[in-house]
Hints:
By secondary structure, the protein is of the alpha/beta class. The chain folds into two domains: 10-191, Thiamin diphosphate (ThDP)-binding fold, Pyr/PP domains (Rossmann fold); 204-329, Rossmann fold, CATH 3.40.50. Helices cover 36% and strands 21% of the residues. It contains twelve helices and 14 strands. The strands form three sheets. The protein has a seven-stranded mixed beta sheet with strand order 3-2-4-5-7-6-12, sandwiched between helices. A five-stranded mixed beta sheet has the order 9-11-10-13-14, with helices on both faces. A two-stranded antiparallel sheet has the order 1-8. The longest helix has 15 residues, at 13-27. The model has no long low-confidence stretch (mean pLDDT 96).
Amino acid sequence: MSETMPKTETMTVREAIREALREEMARDESVVVFGEDVANFGGVLAVTGDLVEQFGEDRVIDTPISEAGFIGAAVGAAATGLRPVPEIMFVDFIGVPMEQVHNQLAKMRYMFGGKADLPVTIRTTEGGGQRAASQHSSSYHTWFAHLPGIKAVSPGTPRAAKGLLKSSIRSDDPVIFFENKVMYEMEGEVPTDEDFTIPIGEAHVEREGDDVTVVASQRLVGESLEVADDLDGDTDVEVIDVQSYYPLDTNTILDSVEKTGRLVVADESPLSYGAHAEIAARVVEEGFYSLDAPIQRVGIADVHVPFSPPLEDDVVPSGDQVRAAIERIA
């Protein structure tokens, strides 16, 4: 008897995130969404859409322009029984509530001996490519993967967007959910099952290959897949969507590198002291003798994202850079 395939629907990343929010709010009345312009305006990038019409202004709440205030409110609400999903409009603004994030949200369960659950999912957008200048174009996921007590995740496909967000909202630990804003119109097949989730801490092999492993995140997953298809016949590229920065699925990466012997890490963040270095370090520590060539990194140079379109295009990593990295070691 053939296995029944799960029912799917073509969705954009924006629609997949909204559907995850809708399903979790319908499933659990303790889930509340709030942030700047998330209710009546539907979100500055139209992600929350019409949720306020379905769930009302008591559960989809427009806040004042005070990230420190509403993230602090999220910490208190979570400690007393709610599951808040606050939105920080752009990750560049997360420095404002940093005291609440790193000193309260990340530490409270530890300091209370495990007696306080902090089920907060902070949604935020990041990444360049929209000509929005430095204060609206950063990628800071590495900061939060580095903080004990915080889970840091980010989808590379619409499927991952829905499944990871649902798992984040259900988690009793704090999660920061990073959305690459140039991906909102990306389409893909997404399971419609309301119980569909993707466990935090699992990477996903998007394309199998035997010659080179590309571990990618966010927008660079799709661009790496395009490069892999273009190189097919010359170089067989395996593409992995990291999905979760912390916890990191080291085993899936090691298994792939053991097969291919070569690794490219493609992540839209500054190259120094970041996700690239952590993944490379784990592979060197635990899989050094699988490597047949030096590990290659594709990311942002240690500069801010500029406003000038030609300069931004030069700074923000692309599929062309992934291809060049593959060709250096293939």
